[in-house]
Amino acid sequence: MGTAIRGGRGRRGRLAVALGLAGELLITLGLVLALFVGYSLWWTDVVADRAAGRAGDRLRQTWTVPAAPPGGPAAAEPVPQYAAGDGVGFLHVPAFGRGDQTLIRMGTTAEVLNEGVAGVYEEPYRSAMPWDAEGNFALAAHRDGHGAKFHDLDRLAPGDPVVVETRDSWYVYKVAGTLPQTSKYDVGVVAPVPEGSPFTGPGRYLTLTTCTPVYTSRYRMAVWAELVRVDPVDAKRTPPPELR
């Protein structure tokens, strides 16, 4: 009987040791996961913001804009052929906070979007550009990590202004509709006349898309806006009233 008792205590001791080791492993795993999440949601933001800031500065340095004559017409918008990754301009969304600015670049690959920018769709539909006579200027950006430029996209509501800044013009849009959730395979939301939007025919539109819910990429959300006017850029690059 004494041997049996000692054996039971030994088994309980070994079980306690095993449970202790398992607990330590779980704690270690939890710390590793926490570090990974911190890297994904903080450090990638830092790196992306730095990269986007440098790229944005380089783009502005290439812009030489003559002053528009008082009361005169807006300067003619250039029509260059953009390659993937090229800078196009800047997106300003007052609802994201004062002074918000996001560099716009061609393409929606991870290589482009991971640098903290809004990317222009080139497929399945090639986006129209803001200066085109009609079409849909469709953009995508990360909601979390890598700059998270569209983290607050769900703040936008009908009537909110959104401004696209290019070398020669400020394109002022007004939000017309939102789609809180759709399949990530729903390419119709970025069609020339976006499916599910309030628009029923050709026009000059802007579409912003990102992942949803927060911290996942299971679905997509979309915000649609319509161009309401184009303001010429003056020598001081005075922003339109919506950004003041």
TrEMBL record:
The portions of this protein that span the membrane are 15-42
Alphabetical keyword list: Hydrolase, Membrane, Transmembrane, Transmembrane helix
Q: Which CDD domains match?
A: Sortase_E (cd05830)
Organism superkingdom: Bacteria
- Residues at the catalytic site: H142 (proton donor/acceptor), C211 (acyl-thioester intermediate)
Signal sequence range: none
Kindly give the SUPFAM superfamilies that the UniProt entry links to this protein: Sortase (SSF63817)
GO MF: hydrolase activity
Q: Does the keyword Isomerase apply?
A: no
Instruction: Please state what the protein is called.
Output: Putative peptidase C60 family protein
